[in-house]
Amino acid sequence: MLETAHMNGGSALVSDTANRTPGAKGKRRRRDVENANGSIGRALRTVYQQTVDERVPDDMLELLRKLD
């Protein structure tokens, strides 16, 4: 439903959906987003930890020693 808002001497059509409280559909959508964010966060932490734990190749270590 649209309402007419009067501001600064003019008027504009605005949606009244901003005034509604989230229903079951909105709560479910929020929960789905939070679950997806949690899954993405866990995946990123796993990849990061695997990268940290990865062995540095001998060739790279040799190059680093030459810099000293």
Q: Please, could you describe this protein's structure?
A:
This protein is of the alpha+beta class and 68 residues long. It has a domain at 22-68. It has helices at residues 24-53, 58-67; strands spanning 2-7, 10-15. A two-stranded antiparallel ribbon has the order 1-2. The longest helix is centred in the middle third of the chain and has 30 residues, at 24-53.
Beta-strand residue percentage: 15-25%
Task: Specify the biggest β-sheet.
Answer: 2 strands, antiparallel
- Give the fraction of residues assigned to helices: 55-70%
Inertia-based shape: elongated
Radius of gyration: 27 Å
Question: What's the N-to-C terminus distance?
Answer: 71 Å
The strands making up the biggest β-sheet line up spatially as: 1-2
By DSSP, the count of extended strands is: 2
Write the layout of secondary structure elements.
Elements: E1 2-7, E2 10-15, H1 24-53, H2 58-67
